[in-house]
Structures are given as structure tokens and as C-alpha cells.
Design a protein that fits this description.
The chain has 336 residues and is mainly α. The chain has one domain: Hydantoin permease, CATH 1.10.4160. It contains 15 helices and no strands. The protein has helices at residues 2-15, 18-21, 24-29, 35-61, 67-74, 77-110, 114-131, 133-158, 171-195, 202-230, 240-248, 250-279, 283-297, 301-306, 308-335. α4 runs antiparallel to α10. The longest helix has 34 residues, at 77-110. The protein is globular. It starts with a helix and ends with a helix.
Length: 336
């Protein structure tokens, strides 16, 4: 059971970065759609669950714990190359966004410039990746469990005296669900492949995927409900949930800032581990990768989420559908 939880919450940790924990992603992709935004959230949770289930089942069935071997198993050479580089590029984009967020959080806590804080974070992450991907992902599983419980608890606290109302819109909500899941899942694929070594049988893979999908649905739904109350009525800033936490009390804001920082760290670890694992980077190249992410982070948190993420999301969803399709095809062929 412990291994199932580590896999589930390491996967969640790869998904709930600064954009999610801050509420910026939910606000950007779902709250503007009103009640139909919640339909999009349900669609996204289903996509997260099915994607994890497909990869974990194939990895468990073929005893795979390496993303490159996983790609060799499910697709031909040209597609493998495309997916390999797509995972690297998407993970790099996520890594850069998280470094930008880390810089802003560091500035809020210490008063030092965001650039210096992001540089320190990039260096620390590089040292962590040098220590080994498996250790990083195991740590993520533990932190991910704390983050999920903490974010849910904070959301219930913020909703205690509130009644939420809704607005309106529909087809766009489904497209936003696709974009949102697309840029999150491609970087998570190498993480799932590496984590699969902890699962022994098919039921373990199913349980891990369902736990992760269920937790993501609850957290996303709660953040959506809270932001629906305030969206369009007050200035929410770059980190909407943190802005709302500050309206509660200084202590509550400090607690949520801690959770927010944890979400940034775990996603930095996951995205960096995905690049390290996919390209089997040696130490000098790990530091070069981290330095490049720091330079890209200079574009700023809001701009990166609204542009790089949206572009990656469209392409990522197409690749996500392909991976799920070939995995299902592989699993069905085994039964025949």
C-alpha cells in the first residue's frame, strides 16, 4: 500500500506546481467558463487518470521502469524520437515556470531579488538531480501526500462561511481541459515510467491511477469553487489562492505560502527528473540544463503560464492521446 501511495502522490506532485497551487491555472483555464468550467475539471481528472492507468499497466505488464524502454515497447523509432524530445521540451518549459515562481516566492519571503532566489533554487535542484532520480521521486511522494492533504484542508477552511455562485459557457471548457491536461501529462510520462518499479501487479497500477485522479479532482474542484466566489470582483494577482489566504489571516497566509512553496519544489524535482531520466544526463549537463531553465524563467511566471503552457498544451494533448492509444492497443493485443 505504501508503494501505491508513493506512486500516486509522486504523480500528483508532478502535476500540482505553482500554477495549480496558486490557483492561476484554474482561473486561467476554467473559472472564466463559469459552471461549464467544472465540467472541464471533471474531464481533465478523467484524462489524468486514464493516462496514468495506461502507462502504469504497460510498465507493470512488461516490467519496465525506464521511459526510453517504455517508448521502445509502445511505438516505432520515429515516434519514439518525437515523444522523447517532446517530453524533454515540455519538462524544460515546466521547469522554467517553476523557477520563475520560486524566484517570486523567495522574494516574498526573504526580500532578496527574484533573480537571485531563482538562481539559488536552480543550483540546489541540480545537486538533487545529481544525487539520483529515484531518491527525488521518493521524496516527492512523501511531500505530495502532505501537499494534497494541506491544500484540501486550506480550501475547506476558506469555504467555511462562503456560498459559491457560478457564471456560464461550454465547448471551450472541454478544449481548456484538453490544453490543461496536455501540458501537464507529457512531462509526467517519464515520471510514471520510473515510478512503476514500485508496483507489482495490475491492481496496484489501477489503485495508484484512481487515487491520483480522485485527489486531483477534489483539489481542483475546491480551488475552482473558491475562485468562483471572487473572480471578477477583486484583484487576485499572480497568485490568486495566496491573495485569498492573506485575506483570512497572517498565520493562514504563511501556512498556504508553505504549501505553495512545496508545490513549486515538487514540480521542479519532477520536471527536472523527467529531463534527467529521458536524456540520461551526466552531471555537467544537469547543471547546464538547470542554468538554461533559470535563463528562460526570466520571462516571468504569468507570461510563461499564459503562452508557453498554452502552446505546449495543444501539442501535448495530441501526444497524450497517442500514448494512451498505443498503450491500450498493446494491452488489448496481450489479451488476444
Amino acid at each position: 500500500m505504501i508503494n501505491i501511495l508513493i506512486v500516486s502522490y509522486s504523480y500528483i506532485a508532478a502535476l500540482i506546481g505553482a500554477g495549480f497551487a496558486s490557483g492561476q491555472e484554474i482561473l486561467c483555464y476554467f473559472n472564466s467558463r463559469g459552471i461549464y468550467g467544472f465540467i472541464g475539471i471533471i474531464a481533465a481528472a478523467i484524462i489524468f487518470t486514464v493516462f496514468a492507468l495506461c502507462i502504469l499497466l504497460v510498465c507493470v505488464r512488461y516490467d519496465i521502469s525506464d521511459y526510453n524502454i517504455f517508448l521502445d515497447t509502445i511505438c516505432h523509432k520515429k515516434m519514439k524520437k518525437l515523444l522523447r524530445y517532446a517530453s524533454g521540451i515540455f519538462s524544460f518549459a515546466v521547469y522554467s515556470v517553476m523557477l520563475a515562481a520560486a524566484g517570486e516566492i523567495g522574494w516574498m519571503i526573504t526580500g532578496m531579488s527574484a533573480g537571485i532566489c531563482a538562481a539559488v533554487c536552480a543550483a540546489l535542484c541540480a545537486f538533487m538531480f545529481c544525487a539520483g532520480v529515484d531518491r527525488v521521486l521518493s521524496l516527492n511522494g512523501f511531500i505530495g501526500l502532505i501537499l494534497a492533504a494541506g491544500i484540501m484542508t486550506c480550501c475547506f477552511y476558506m469555504l467555511r462561511y462562503r456560498e459559491h455562485h457560478v457564471f456560464s459557457e461550454q465547448l471551450a471548457a472541454y478544449s481548456d481541459a484538453a490544453v490543461y491536461s496536455g501540458y501537464n501529462l507529457i512531462p509526467a510520462a517519464p515520471v510514471l515510467a520510473a515510478l512503476s518499479k514500485r508496483l507489482r501487479k495490475k491492481t496496484d497500477a489501477i489503485a495508484a491511477a484512481l487515487i491520483a485522479g480522485g485527489a486531483m479532482l477534489i483539489m481542483t474542484g475546491l480551488i475552482f469553487a473558491i475562485l468562483s466566489i471572487y473572480h471578477g470582483k477583486i484583484e487576485l494577482g499572480s497568485f490568486p489562492m495566496l491573495t485569498l489566504a492573506q485575506r483570512q489571516s497572517g498565520v493562514f497566509a504563511a501556512i498556504y505560502l508553505l504549501l505553495f512553496s512545496g508545490a513549486v519544489i515538487t514540480t521542479l524535482f519532477s520536471s527536472g527528473a523527467a529531463v534527467t531520466e529521458t536524456f540520461r544526463l551526466r552531471k555537467p549537463y544537469i547543471f547546464l540544463f538547470s542554468a538554461s531553465g533559470y535563463l528562460a524563467a526570466g520571462a516571468g511566471f504569468d507570461r510563461l503560464i499564459d503562452t508557453a503552457y498554452r502552446i505546449c498544451g495543444i501539442v501535448g494533448f495530441a501526444l497524450t492521446v497517442y500514448i494512451a492509444y498505443v498503450c491500450l492497443k498493446k494491452l488489448i493485443s496481450i489479451k488476444k
